[in-house]
């Protein structure tokens, strides 16, 4: 036990004295969560638009008021002819133009329909799409209001309700995603680098020629990172909850348990990587290429898995991060209990055991 | 016997690193492995410190087999690898206490073993190991290897990259450790350090050329070596090589070492020969044979 404490103390010295590790450990999680939370977002707010109202009657005015009252749009200017549309798009002042046709009220009364054209600047397809959807929603809402007073004969109403994330906040998917990426990075990359560093510096030779057995060396190396990863996970969750209003519907204890499980999965992967590489460079390359990319792309963090080609969907099953993201989303957003996520949990436990057994088999008690 | 090596061979792919090496080291002896870089010294050290497995042969250290009892060996030896292998980001004191803890001891408990060496680096105990000078690093590494009172000490080229004064101090320390009954296996590429060992093995290209005490190796050497010097050193080497009965010619410090094939070598004849070839300020005298001369002879014969 004394040996273990001595070893762990030494590891902490290494970490706290290395500015790079300190940055990766503590700067990165905060920077990432802030970036994803504030900068990268699919929501729109105060988008500049222009109005071309050819009718200028009471009805169009009412709709325009309604649009400008919403927090999503800001009416930058009103234009008077279609020729101006291109030029204002080119100047980049507005992202969309709403065109009301001539005789709007008259058409509505005589033909029971009138047209609004939504022209968007699709150089940014996501924003264009979102703007169209938002405008549609506002207009539909308005139509319903008119219909309610007029009572037409038949009508099918869609009533949309968004469960778990009613405002479609992107931060709800980014917090679990960032947490997964950070835990993977810290646990797997940092441990594999710290173990290979001993090999590279030649200190592993001295450690091997000591009474320490492999298990003690590995545990001593890994323990500080378990501890630091838990701190990291806590920081991310706290930021998510207090800065971005992310809910924790389920049990915090379960969340903690699952996070520790995932940290151990990542650590065992890190150990495995360190048994396969002899230099810090290789360990870093394997961690970045072999872990980070799949974690970001194939885990469902940014790109939905269900819309991927089948082979990729199959491959995604072997990525621990995928299961962890399912688990924490279920706990935080849906309030799921262990009865619901036992399958994913078992998969993670299985993967962890597999990695640990493989690393123990691969761990060398000698130099070759 | 403290170390027994029998017919140990080790090859990497098709290259022999060491081939059928055998030697014994008695208890309390300083045994030197003398040979140039690439002779297989480090490989041999790693086999004896249980870090590598030999392809053939057997070896024991402190009575334990290097393969079967590797755990017992790891508890009873101190090893100082060729590369400086302490934690550069830890201070002197932290390095020492770390190695003390992993060997299950403390600095206080075995202070008497390392005292003499430690007092020299104690003023710098709060300095990071990476900021120490070469000689200081060596002393620290030796302290760390000794902290658990090992029976056998393995030092792989401990004085490489260390200044001459520190090298001398280092060997004085080894002599004192020897008096404590610690067996020391040390390797070095410096031939002048060979004379400081009790017995040496000259190794070259993975094979042992000779094992004996340094004195015996020198006294048993049957050839006479001559120091030769003239004004034009470069031309001298050329001309000596063309001398009919030459056996070996090589530069050695400010002199050229010359060895003749025949027993009835006459230095006057050589002097005349050199005069004919327009050499001036000719100086020829019998040289004091050194380990290096013998090593040169053995390796040229070996080729």
Q: Descriptors for this entry?
A:
A: 368 residues; alpha/beta; 2 domains; four-stranded mixed sheet; 14 helices; 4 strands; B: 303 residues; Rossmann fold; Alpha-Beta Plaits; six-stranded mixed sheet; 34% helix; elongated
Task: Return the CATH topology of the largest domain in chain B.
Answer: Rossmann fold
Strand arrangement within the widest β-sheet of chain A reads 2-1-3-4
**In sequence order, what are the helices and strands of chain B, one letter per element?**
EEEHEEHEHHHEHEEEHEHEEHEH
Number of domains of chain A: 2
Mean pLDDT of chain A: 86
Find the count of extended strands of chain A (DSSP E, 2+ residues): 4
Strand content of chain A: 5-15%
The whole-angstrom Rg of chain B is 23 Å
How much of the polypeptide of chain B forms β-strand, as a percent range? 25-35%
Distance between the termini of chain B: 33 Å
Helix count from the secondary structure assignment of chain A: 14
Explain how this protein is built.
By secondary structure, chain A is of the alpha/beta class. Chain A is 68% helix and 7% strand. Chain A folds into two domains: 19-40 and 170-362, no CATH class; 47-150, abc type-2 transporter like fold (3-Layer(aba) Sandwich). Chain A has a four-stranded mixed β-sheet with strand order 2-1-3-4, sandwiched between helices. The longest helix of chain A is centred in the middle third of the chain and has 31 residues, at 171-201. Chain A starts with a helix and ends in a 6-residue tail after the last helix. The mean pLDDT of chain A is 86. Chain B is α/β, with parallel strands linked by helices and 303 residues long. Chain B folds into two domains: 3-219, Rossmann fold, CATH 3.40.50; 225-302, 2-Layer Sandwich (Alpha-Beta Plaits), CATH 3.30.70. Chain B contains ten helices and 14 strands. In chain B, the strands form three sheets. In chain B, strands 6-7-8-3-9-10 form a six-stranded mixed β-sheet, with helices on both faces. In chain B, helix 3 packs parallel to helix 5 and helix 4 packs antiparallel against helix 5. Chain B is elongated and about 70 Å long. At the A-B interface, helix 1 and helix 8 of A face helix 2 and helix 3 of B. Chain B: Keywords: ATP-binding, Nucleotide-binding. Chain B: It comes from Flavobacterium frigoris. Chain B: GO terms for molecular function: ATP binding; ATP hydrolysis activity. Chain B: Residues 3-230 form the ABC transporter domain.
């Amino acid at each position: 036990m004394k040996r273990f404490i001595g070893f762990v103390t030494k590891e902490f010295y290494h970490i706290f004295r290395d500015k790079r590790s300190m940055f990766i450990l503590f700067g990165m999680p905060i920077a990432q969560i802030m970036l994803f939370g504030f900068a990268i977002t699919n929501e729109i707010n105060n988008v500049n638009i222009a109005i071309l109202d050819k009718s200028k009657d009471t009805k169009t005015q009412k709709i325009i008021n309604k649009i400008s009252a919403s927090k999503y749009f800001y009416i930058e200017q009103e234009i008077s002819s279609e020729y101006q549309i291109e030029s204002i798009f080119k100047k980049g002042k507005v992202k969309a133009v709403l065109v009301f046709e001539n005789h709007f009220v008259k058409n509505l009364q005589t033909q029971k329909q009138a047209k609004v054209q939504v022209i968007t600047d699709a150089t940014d397809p996501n924003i264009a799409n979102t703007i169209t959807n938002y405008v549609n929603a506002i207009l539909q809402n308005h139509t319903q209001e008119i219909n309610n007073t007029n009572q037409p004969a038949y009508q099918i109403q869609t009533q949309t309700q968004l469960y778990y994330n009613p405002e479609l906040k992107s931060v709800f998917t980014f917090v679990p995603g960032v947490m997964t990426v950070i835990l993977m990075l810290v646990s797997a990359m940092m441990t594999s680098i710290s173990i290979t560093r001993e090999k590279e510096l030649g200190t592993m030779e001295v450690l091997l020629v000591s009474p320490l057995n492999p298990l003690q060396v590995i545990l001593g190396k890994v323990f500080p990172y378990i501890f630091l990863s838990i701190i990291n996970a806590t920081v991310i969750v706290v930021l998510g909850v207090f800065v971005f209003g992310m809910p924790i519907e389920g049990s915090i204890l379960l969340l903690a348990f699952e996070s520790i499980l995932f940290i151990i999965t990542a650590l065992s992967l890190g150990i495995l990587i360190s048994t396969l590489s002899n230099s810090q460079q290789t360990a870093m390359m394997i961690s970045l290429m072999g872990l980070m990319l799949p974690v970001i792309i194939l885990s469902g963090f940014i790109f939905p898995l269900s819309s991927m080609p089948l082979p990729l969907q199959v491959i995604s099953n072997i990525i621990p991060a995928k299961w962890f993201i399912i688990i924490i989303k279920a706990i935080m957003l849906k309030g799921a209990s262990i009865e619901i996520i036992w399958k994913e949990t078992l998969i993670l436990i299985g993967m962890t055991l597999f990695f640990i057994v493989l690393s123990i088999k691969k761990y060398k008690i000698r130099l070759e | 016997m403290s170390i027994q090596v029998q017919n140990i061979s080790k090859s990497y792919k098709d290259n022999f690193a060491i081939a059928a090496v055998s030697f014994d080291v008695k208890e309390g002896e300083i045994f030197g492995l003398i040979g140039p870089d690439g002779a297989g010294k480090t490989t041999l050290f790693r086999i004896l410190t249980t870090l590598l497995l030999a392809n053939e042969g057997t070896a024991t250290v402190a009575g334990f087999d290097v393969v079967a009892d590797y755990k017992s060996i790891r508890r009873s030896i101190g090893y100082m690898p060729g590369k400086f292998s302490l934690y550069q980001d830890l201070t002197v004191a932290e390095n020492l206490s770390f190695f003390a803890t992993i060997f299950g001891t403390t600095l206080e408990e075995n202070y008497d073993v390392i005292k003499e060496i430690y007092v020299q680096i104690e003023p710098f105990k709060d300095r990071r190991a990476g900021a120490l000078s070469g000689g200081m690093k060596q002393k620290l590494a030796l302290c760390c290897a000794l902290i658990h009172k090992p029976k056998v000490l393995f030092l792989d080229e401990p004085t490489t990259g260390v200044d001459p004064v520190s090298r001398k101090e280092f060997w004085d320390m080894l002599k004192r450790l020897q008096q404590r009954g610690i067996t020391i296996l040390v390797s070095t590429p410096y031939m002048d350090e060979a004379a400081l060992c009790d017995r040496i093995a000259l190794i070259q290209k993975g094979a042992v050329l000779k094992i004996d005490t340094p004195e015996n190796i020198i006294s048993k050497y049957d050839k006479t070596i001559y120091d030769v010097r003239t004004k034009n050193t470069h031309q001298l080497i050329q001309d000596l090589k063309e001398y009919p009965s030459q056996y070996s010619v090589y530069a050695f410090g400010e002199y050229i070492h010359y060895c003749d094939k025949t027993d009835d070598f006459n230095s006057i004849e050589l002097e005349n020969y050199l005069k004919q070839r327009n050499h001036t300020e000719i100086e020829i005298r019998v040289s004091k044979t050194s380990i290096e001369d013998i090593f040169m002879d053995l390796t040229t014969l070996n080729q």
